[in-house]
Amino acid sequence: MNGVDEGLASEAGYFVVGFDRDAEPQATIRVVGADGEASHVAQIAPGNFDIQRINGLANNQVNPSGAALLARIRAEAGRKAQGFASRADLDGFKSGFIPPLEKYRVSGRFGGQRVLNGEPRTPHYGADLAAPTGATVRAPASGLVAFAETGLHFEGGLTMIDHGQGLISVYLHQSRVDVRRGEMVTQGQVIGAVGKEGRATGPHLCWRMKWHGRNLDPTLMVGVKTPA
Questions:
Q1: Buried b (16+ CB within 10 A) or exposed e, 127-148
Q2: Which residues pair with 149 in a beta bridge?
Q3: Taking every pair of C-alpha atoms in the chain, what is the biggest distance, in angstroms?
Q4: Which of helix, strand or coil describes residue 37?
Q5: Residues 56, 73: Cα–Cα separation, whole Å
Q6: Is the dihedral of CA 131, 139, 151, 60 positive or negative?
Q7: Domain spans of the chain, in order of start
Q8: Per-residue model confidence as pLDDT tens digits over 146-156
Q9: C-alpha 76: how far from its chain's center?
Q10: 157: three-class secondary structure by DSSP
Q11: Which fold has domain 51-221?
Q12: Which of 91, 94, 201, 210 has a 20 to 30 Å separation from 62 between CA atoms?
């Protein structure tokens, strides 16, 4: 693992650990409790990432300019940073995740190198799930809404859910956001609707996930539950 992260398990003893796209091939997980400590060396399998070329984007979505727009983007980035900084004392991840959409087509895999209007950019840290505008978006697991806004320049309608232990899932380009910051949601609860707002060429949900600032592939969490 690049660097060292420390944290407390939930009251029930649950915790989660995440590895990002470019993690080292080996990491040591160390658990310390009242009865002693234990460690485990995790082997991290390398990912298989593609190149995603997206054309037809408005220039201000690729190379934004102008004092007013740049100030707006900076302000939005500050508010999003506050959402990602949420650290709710929860373990909403313990029952596993379900997909946020009932029906969808994967139009972009996590980690692919992005080329926007012919310009190479940073990798895409999300899974793009194509679905019709207005399709219902549901919370894949329970948690606390850490961010909920519409009309953001790059993301359009954006929701973040804090599932506990620094694990935050993110939902971009929504045409409608049905929850508010500070609200508790349960698995399967409606949180919004698919759209094509912000930097998008068609209706889809960009599903992202972070753990202590590290970008994770959210699709890997589907069906995974904590040990009995």
A1: bbbbbebebbbbbbbbbbbbbb
A2: 158
A3: 59
A4: strand
A5: 21
A6: negative
A7: 51-221
A8: 999 999 999 99
A9: 17
A10: strand
A11: Glucose Permease (Domain IIA) (2.70.70)
A12: 210
